[in-house]
C-alpha cells in the first residue's frame, strides 16, 4: 500500500518547477492527479511523461488560469467527476512579477501578481473546501514564500501576495479544522526552477550564473534548493501523517530566513 493510493490531488501550476516536481513525487506514492496550468503545451508534455513513468497513476489535465474563477470551478468539478473526491489541493500556481523599488512598481503588474498569487489561492480553497467538507477529509498546501514571512527588496507585490497566502492559510485552518480539513503553507527560499532562473537573469542579464553563485553564498547550506526537496515536504503535508499540523507556514530554505 502506498501513501496516496486511492487519493486524488489537484496541483495548480503543474507544468513545470515546483508543481511538476510534486506531481512526480505524489505519482510515485500512488496518487491520482489533476494537473492544472495555463501553459497548454508544457502541461501536455508533463502529463505524457508522468503517465509513461508511473503507468498506474490516473492523470487528468485542466488547461486554465488559476486567477480565473470559472477555471478554478472547472478544475474542482472535473476532479470530482474523474475521481469521485478531492483529497488534496496543492495551490501552487504563482508568478514573481517584475522587480522594481516600491514607488516605481508598475501598478498593472502589481494587480496581476495579486490576482494570480492571492486570488488564485483563495479561489482554489473556496471551490475545493466544500467538496472536502462533504468528505470530512482534506489536505491543502498553499504556496507562500520566504517573501511571505520576510520583506524582499524590489518585490513589493510578490511580498504582499505571499504574506496574504500565509494569512489565508491561518484562516482556513481555523475555520475548517473541525471538518477534517488540514491547511498549511510552505515558504520556499530560492529553489532552482525556471522562475528563479528568470529572476537571476533579471539581476544580472550578462551572467545569471554569477548572480546565482553570489546568492548561494549567503545560505547556511551554501547552495540553492532543489524542487525535489520541496516536493518531499509537500507530500508529507498532503498525507494523513500531517493530521495535527494546521495553519503553519513552513520554511524550506536551508535555514536562510533565520539569519539576521
Ligand atoms: P515556475 O515559473 O517555474 O512554474 C510555475 C508554473 O505555474 C508554470 O508552469 C506556469 O505556467 C504556471 N502558472 C503561473 N501562473 C499561472 C496561472 N495563473 N494559472 C495557471 N498556471 C499558472 O515557478 P516555480 O518556481 O515552480 O513556482 C511555483 C510556486 O512556488 C509559485 O507560487 C512561486 O511563487 C512559489 N515559490 C517559488 C520559489 C522558488 O524559489 N522557485 C520560492 C518561493 C516560492
From TrEMBL:
GO BP annotations listed: monocarboxylic acid metabolic process
Transmembrane parts of this sequence: none
Alphabetized InterPro entries for the sequence: NAD(P)-bd_dom_sf, Sc_DH/Rdtase_CS, SDR, SDR_fam
Pfam families documented for this protein: adh_short_C2
PANTHER family in the record: 3-OXOACYL-(ACYL-CARRIER-PROTEIN) REDUCTASE (PTHR42879), 3-OXOACYL-[ACYL-CARRIER-PROTEIN] REDUCTASE FABG (PTHR42879:SF2)
Recorded family membership: Belongs to the short-chain dehydrogenases/reductases (SDR) family.
Stated name of the protein: SDR family oxidoreductase
Species this chain originates from: Pontibacter burrus
